[in-house]
Design a protein that fits this description.
The structure is a single chain. With 173 residues, the protein is an alpha+beta fold. 37% of the residues lie in helices and 18% in strands. It has a five-stranded mixed sheet. It has a two-stranded antiparallel ribbon with strand order 1-6. Helix 2 packs across helix 5. The termini are far apart.
Length: 173
């Protein structure tokens, strides 16, 4: 069974990933038609609550790179493969609140999330166990996101298909 199918099959995991992970497997079309500048194929696999889309890039299965595009014209490579993406969402579901990808930002965001949802960590642990995944530390998850977004991610240039304009990188050095 694929990890995406395992998420669909486990309500607790799907619920945690939908919130606070903001990763819903209710696939939809992105707010506008987009393509990668390289011509590599894009497959939408999930959405977030604000109109953003998670895409698998290229051909193959869940091992493909995962690109996120928001509804405001920003994009970034988040992970290489669905398992890595899910581990990121389990570790730091507030990754969008960490524009410099620092542990300090993550700690502040975590405090806010935990204040609003005191059972968040228990829900995360249950989702991770149901999916058979380990949860990296926030520092490890953010370091990997930084490595991808500012390294190989720079070659994943998303374009508005109609206008040909490039999406802005969500993270900068």
């Amino acid at each position: 069974m694929s990890l995406l199918d395992a998420i669909r099959a486990d309500a607790a995991a799907a619920d945690f990933l939908a919130w606070p992970g903001d990763f819903s497997l209710d696939v939809h079309e992105h707010v506008e038609e987009v393509v990668l500048a390289s011509g590599t194929a894009l497959e939408p696999v999930a959405k977030d609550g604000a109109g953003g889309t998670f895409f698998l890039c290229g051909e193959g299965g869940e091992e493909r790179p995962v690109l996120y595009a928001d509804s405001e014209g920003g994009a970034t490579l988040l992970a290489v493969g669905v398992p890595e993406l899910v581990r990121l969402l389990l570790a730091v579901p507030w990754w969008r609140d960490c524009p410099r990808l620092t542990v300090e930002e993550s700690t502040g965001a975590a405090e806010e999330y935990l204040e609003d949802e005191p059972d968040l960590l228990a829900g995360r642990d249950a989702a991770a166990a149901a999916l058979g995944l380990d949860v990296p530390s926030p520092a490890e998850a953010l370091a990997r996101l930084r490595e991808l977004a500012l390294g190989p991610g720079t070659s994943y240039v998303l374009l508005n298909a109609e206008e040909g304009t490039a999406y802005e990188p969500l993270f900068r050095p």
